[in-house]
Design a protein that fits this description.
Number of helices of chain A: 16
Number of strands of chain B: 21
CATH superfamily of the largest domain in chain A: Alpha-helical ferredoxin
Strand order of the largest sheet of chain A: 2-1-5-3-4
Radius of gyration of chain A: 24 Å
Distance between the termini of chain A: 34 Å
CATH architecture of the largest domain in chain A: Orthogonal Bundle
Helix content of chain B: 25-40%
Distance between the termini of chain B: 55 Å
Order of helices and strands of chain A: EEHEEHEEEHHHHHHHHHHHHHH
Strand content of chain A: 5-15%
Structural class of chain A: alpha+beta
CATH topology of the largest domain in chain A: Fumarate Reductase Iron-sulfur Protein, Chain B, domain 2
CATH topology of one domain in chain B: Methane Monooxygenase Hydroxylase, Chain G, domain 1
Largest interface: A-B, 65 and 72 residues
Number of domains of chain A: 3
Structural class of chain B: alpha+beta
Oligomer: heterodimer
Largest sheet of chain A: 5 strands, mixed
CATH class of the largest domain in chain A: Mainly Alpha
Shape of chain A: globular
Number of helices of chain B: 16
Radius of gyration of chain B: 22 Å
Chain lengths: 382, 562
């Protein structure tokens, strides 16, 4: 069997010593997991390595760690896959001329380390979960038997329901790195689980709360890290985008953070130019160049613009003119999406795989039709 | 010192349900778990939960199926209670927000399950346990003023006063190693089964029989410990579970010759016979040379429409892909019977009371008994909810009528000494992992689908030896922050105690009933063995066996065919 070298980050606050790297070599099959390797090391050599784990089948959510720089569950990450992640990134090259593949295992990010690979999820992850009022607020009257709701709705919320609270998405959330108060991907996916549930009575209240919070749904920068990180296909960012669409289009919530306007300026910008024409974006987000609010924002954005000019990122011509016009393909794309009777939502529990015949993928079935024509987005999620 | 009306140990479905009902009754509640509650192994329950909720279905039909499934060893009064209360539990969960999948009319949908005469299994894709566990945890968060949660606290000992009443527990805060006495009027054990006694098992690493051993050590009776369920569809090698929901949705079992062999063993129900029957059929095929070279038969899920598999069995699609390299929507997957559940446990009545005063038990840790010799699929979630609720309500009602017992905090001294002794063990003993592995493989070899006296006797000798070795097992970690080594040493002791009671029970019952299949005593023998085997500690460190009658209300034992 091939050999793998595991570099495990060790830290015991009780020892008073700085974190260190322990190196162990294991002989295991490439399709055994990183957790198998760690447990073997614990069993055979060093029982003091701290890692939470239980089910070994990616359902209990205990063993979230970073492997060669990427977060995930140690139990469903194969050794060969973890090793390959390191190629060309420098992650697996601590020793020059290393013959066996190296897998560096570290605790997850964005959360304080308690010991070794164990992080304090209460201090960050669970605190954020509690922030979104994480329980159903029943639509009244509560029926004597079950609520009658469309099957599609229940299948739709099965996607956020499939979250195992492992924290992998929190670990690598870029927005949270900059703004530790960001409610974050896991908690917002949890919020969608209620907003997407027809039995919940507080959709508007929830959406208003999450839109108006400066650290809420508009604090996400759309970076896809959480979708990459999630081992369960929850696609937290997609759930955040759905919260935005429902808040903006179905409930007409124009938040004080200008998130709604910014998003729509962005979409219209693409509709017009085909690619992002950045100089218009800020002004359009505040009602256009001549809007009083825009003037203030433009002034505050001036240093950034000047820096851009001085570094050649834009020229006065590109800043003021419109050098690019949306090609017909872009218009066609918008027409197709706008032409759909219902908003198109991607949800793996609903839509299956790409080689299937076109599924009935209307995630928002059963919801009140939008009051006005919405401007849907497409998502590059597969 | 934390003091509560009701102390609940274990925060899976039974523990959380007990916490909610005790809180609803007005009691102050503490719920303690050695892991964060949502990591509890209830999370892995996949296929669904049974209830006769459809107007065309009846609780009597559900109860009869359960009695028959138990091979007539289940107590029929308790089974009646469970099946009568089942519909209310489903609706309770539905109203709390469990996202049960629906049928075309938007009502709760059902799927077929083994041993059942109607499709009465309610489900959330194949993550039913997960969905329910997370929703109950939402309710714990909502009621945090009344329910104190102690997450990642490990229980080391149950406490008893001079009269033998249980008055709380000693627990270790895993974060800093501190010991604390939890003072309680009533205590409910809900800490799950003992899957790790076997290798492989479908159960998680945390499922180490803690509660069963803790109760056993303070004198509680255990019951029917020989009844260990082998699930028919577990992956070769790592033992991971492929839900019975797959067969419920229409998957077939095939031997290496491509025959749908269940036709021979269960001509009416085929793959949906009860689990003991299907597991024995598979093992017979394998033993008689009609299995695959890796000691398996095949589960063919391609019989289920692909879209339905992706929607309703998505988790096992992932498990097949990640842990066996098989796309189950395209090709059959190799499976075999594997340890999954223990029907036996701490003997309780239908309110969860054990034979130790003021100590309750609910869920897999307990034996009411509703499962008897063989549990039906999707009855375990029901068991946790019905008897979790009843235990919580009963324990709360009792607690509200009594004063708080006084528990000297000096009682931690003994536990402190025990832990220090583990930490200061000299080097040189066998490694914990090696002992655990030998235990698991021994149990899986001799106390499995087919059993006989020679094998069981050998298993007993090995378990006795391992118990001795375990007292000297090597420890690497001497710290106090998240010292998992010390916990593993304590858990190993629990597992070995539990293993011994399983072996002793299996040696004792000389017949074939449910999961206990003694090839040296063929046939069910109602005349001599229609009774429970109770096991308790006799003080001399050797299990003491006694018997108690099975309660029969309306279903006399009959021949059992599917």
């Amino acid at each position: 069997m091939p050999e793998y070298t595991l570099r495990i980050r060790r830290y015991d606050p009780q020892s008073g010593e700085a974190p260190r790297w322990d190196t162990h070599t294991v002989d295991l099959s490439p399709v055994q997991s990183v957790l198998d390797a760690i447990l073997k090391i614990k069993d055979d050599t060093d029982g003091s390595i701290g890692i939470r784990c239980s089910c070994q089948q990616a359902i209990c959510g205990s063993c979230g760690v970073r492997m060669n720089g990427k977060p995930g569950l140690a139990c469903n990450t194969h050794l060969q896959e973890a090793a390959q992640r390191g190629h060309g990134t420098g992650w697996n090259l601590p020793d020059e001329g290393q013959q066996t593949p190296v897998i560096t295992v570290e605790p997850m990010g964005n959360m304080p380390v308690i010991r070794d690979l164990i992080v304090d999820m209460d201090a960050v992850h669970w605190k954020k979960i509690q922030r979104v009022t994480p329980w159903l607020i029943n639509k009244q009257p509560v029926p004597e038997r079950e609520y009658i709701v469309p099957h599609e709705n229940m299948v739709d919320v099965t996607q956020p329901m499939a979250c195992i609270q492992c924290g992998a998405c929190v670990s690598d959330c870029l927005s949270m790195e900059v703004d530790p108060d960001f409610i974050g991907p896991a908690a917002l996916a949890k919020a969608y689980r209620f907003v997407g549930d027809p039995r919940d009575a507080q959709h508007r209240v929830r959406l208003n709360d999450l839109s108006e919070d400066r650290h809420g749904i508009y604090d996400c920068t759309h970076c896809f890290s959480c979708i990459d990180a999630c081992p369960k296909g929850v696609a937290p960012m997609s759930q955040i985008m759905r919260l935005r669409r429902i808040a903006g289009s179905d409930f007409d919530i124009k938040d004080r953070n200008n998130g709604y306007n910014h998003e729509h300026a962005f979409v219209n910008n693409i509709r017009k130019n085909g690619i992002l024409h950045e100089p218009d974006l800020l002004a359009d987000s505040y009602g256009g160049k001549f809007h009083p609010a825009a003037g203030k924002e433009l002034m505050s954005g001036l240093p950034t613009a000047l820096k851009g000019l001085s570094r050649g990122k834009m020229t006065p011509r590109t800043a003021l003119g419109h050098p690019h016009k949306a090609p017909p393909e872009v218009k066609k794309l918008f027409d197709t999406i706008d032409g759909k009777p219902k908003r198109y939502e991607l949800n793996l529990y609903v839509s299956g795989y790409e080689d299937e015949p076109e599924p009935n993928a209307e995630g928002a079935a059963g919801r009140e039709p939008p009051a006005e024509q919405s401007t849907p987005e497409t998502e590059a999620q597969s | 010192m934390p003091s509560h009306d009701v102390l609940i140990i274990g925060a899976g479905l039974a523990g959380q349900r007990a916490a909610l009902s005790a809180a609803e009754a007005g009691a102050s509640v503490a719920i303690i778990s050695k892991v964060h509650p949502v990591r509890s192994h209830s999370v892995a329950a996949a296929g669904g939960i049974n209830a006769a909720l459809n107007p065309e279905d009846t609780w009597e039909s559900h109860a009869f199926d359960t009695v028959k499934g138990s091979d007539y060893l289940g107590d029929q009064d308790a089974i009646e209670i469970m099946c009568r209360e089942a519909p209310d539990q489903i609706l309770y969960l539905e109203h709390l927000g469990v996202t049960f999948h629906r049928n075309d009319t938007g009502h709760l949908g059902t799927r077929a399950f083994g041993g059942a005469s109607a499709a009465r299994t309610y489900y959330v894709a194949d993550i039913t346990g997960h969905a329910i566990l997370h929703v109950l945890y939402e309710q714990l968060m909502k009621r945090s003023e009344q329910i104190d949660r102690y997450e990642e606290w490990f229980t080391t000992d149950l406490l008893q006063d001079e009269e033998g009443r249980c008055i709380g527990a000693i627990c270790r805060d895993l974060r800093n190693g501190a010991l604390e006495v939890f003072n309680a009027k009533t205590t409910i054990l809900a800490s799950g089964g003992c899957g790790q006694v076997y290798t492989p098992t479908t159960n998680g690493l945390i499922v180490t029989g803690d509660g069963i051993a803790q109760a056993y050590r303070i004198g509680a009776k255990l019951m029917d410990m020989e009844m260990v369920q082998y699930h028919p569809t577990t992956l070769a090698g790592n033992g991971l579970l492929i839900t019975e929901g797959a067969r419920g949705e229409g998957a077939w079992l095939l031997n290496a010759e491509g025959d749908r062999f269940m036709e021979k063993y269960a001509p009416n129900k085929f793959e949906l016979a009860s689990r003991d029957v299907v597991s024995r059929a598979e093992q017979t095929e394998i033993n008689e040379g009609r299995g695959f070279p890796d000691g398996t038969v095949a589960l063919d899920i391609t019989k289920v429409p692909r879209r339905r598999t992706l929607e309703a069995l998505r988790e096992i699609v992932n498990i097949g892909r990640d842990f066996a390299g098989v796309d189950i929507t395209r090709e059959p997957i190799h499976i075999r019977p594997g340890m999954h559940y223990i029907m036996g446990g701490i003997k309780t009545d239908s309110d969860g009371e054990t034979t130790v005063s003021h100590l309750y038990a609910a869920g897999e840790v307990a034996c009411v008994s509703v499962h008897g010799g063989n549990r039906l699929g999707a009855n375990s979630l029901l068991d946790t909810l019905v008897f979790g609720r009843r235990s919580g309500a009963h324990a709360a009602a009792r607690a509200l009528q009594m004063p708080m017992p006084s528990t000297p905090s000096s009682w931690v001294a003994d536990t402190e000494k025990n832990i220090a002794a583990i930490m200061n063990r000299p080097q040189g003993g066998r490694r914990i992992g090696a002992i655990k592995n030998e235990l698991g493989e021994t149990m899986n070899e001799y106390v499995a689908v087919f059993r006989d006296e020679a094998g069981l006797t050998k298993a007993h000798e090995i378990v006795r030896r391992l118990r001795d070795e375990a007292t000297r097992a090597a420890i690497d970690d001497r710290g106090s922050i998240f010292n998992q080594d010390v916990i593993a040493a304590i858990e190993l002791g629990y597992m070995l105690d539990v293993a011994e009671t399983i072996v002793v029970g299996a040696l004792e019952r000389r017949e074939c009933r449910g999961a206990q299949w003694r090839i040296d005593y063929p046939g069910r023998n109602d005349e001599e063995w229609l009774k429970h085997i109770d096991i308790s500690m006799n003080g001399a460190d050797v299990p003491l066996v006694s018997f108690s009658p099975v309660t029969i209300t309306r279903w006399q034992p009959e021949e059992r065919t599917y």
